[in-house]
Design brief:
The protein is mainly β. Helix content is 10%, strand content 31%.
């Protein structure tokens, strides 16, 4: 089990803060572990550090600006005893890895982050120009590397009214969405606990559709990218 912290936008426009104890599993942690502290998020008023972002602020997306309605935070503790050690690692994308100022500067992402980018190994089979792919699928040991922090690190994720692409440090990263199957496959009590972390969500389908298709987990594993 671990502690998760939530800031959410209430229907009256106020900001609600809550803390939750829930399972330290991939499904739960992925909702809180996209952006490392210090990541600059594009807003209509200019870049804002993720830790300074507040519900209600308008951020720039691949469509119209959208208000932040939920911010989740957790602390990654490198010494934590967990089965999957990959969840204790971060992905560091060096400046200019994907082109000039893509990103700028270096971008550090958690295991819950997905980029709107297709790995070269998948380009022939991808039906779309770009698909949402876990950041760690781009590890190459040179430009995109895996790091284990030496001290605890705060990680964050963001929900918007509609799933969208957020521009950060010159790269496109998705807002949080559990995906098409996660909630369907959860047991009833676990699903109820998961949904309690999202005060703005009444029913599982309230997350809405994905803005872009995602790379399949099995395909990524077959290609050796996960």
């Amino acid at each position: 089990m671990r502690k998760y912290e939530v800031l959410s936008l209430a229907s009256d426009g106020s900001v609600q803060e809550s803390q939750h104890i829930a399972p330290a599993t991939d499904a739960f942690e992925a909702a809180f572990s996209a952006f490392a502290r210090g990541t600059m998020i594009g807003t209509i008023d200019g870049p804002c550090a993720i830790e300074d972002l507040e519900p209600g602020m308008l951020i720039t997306t691949d469509g119209a600006p959208q208000p932040v309605i939920w911010i989740g935070r957790m602390t990654l503790v490198p010494s934590a005893p967990i089965d999957d050690q990959r969840r204790l690692k971060l992905t560091r994308i060096m400046a200019d890895s994907f082109g000039l100022a893509r990103p700028m500067p270096d971008l550090v992402l958690g295991h819950g982050a997905r980029l709107l980018r297709t790995p070269s190994e998948m380009r022939e089979m991808a039906m779309q120009a770009n698909i949402l792919t876990p950041a760690r699928a781009f590890l190459d040991g040179m430009n995109v590397i895996e790091i284990t922090p030496q001290t605890p690190v705060s990680l964050y994720h963001i929900c918007l009214p509609h799933h969208a692409i957020i521009r950060t440090a010159g790269l496109e990263v998705e807002s949080y969405h559990p995906g098409a199957n996660l909630l369907r496959d959860m047991a009833g009590n676990t699903r109820a606990l998961f949904l309690s972390l999202f005060p703005h969500i009444g029913t599982p389908d309230a997350f809405g559709p994905l803005a872009h298709p995602r790379a399949g987990q099995k395909t990524l594993e077959q290609l050796g990218l996960m």
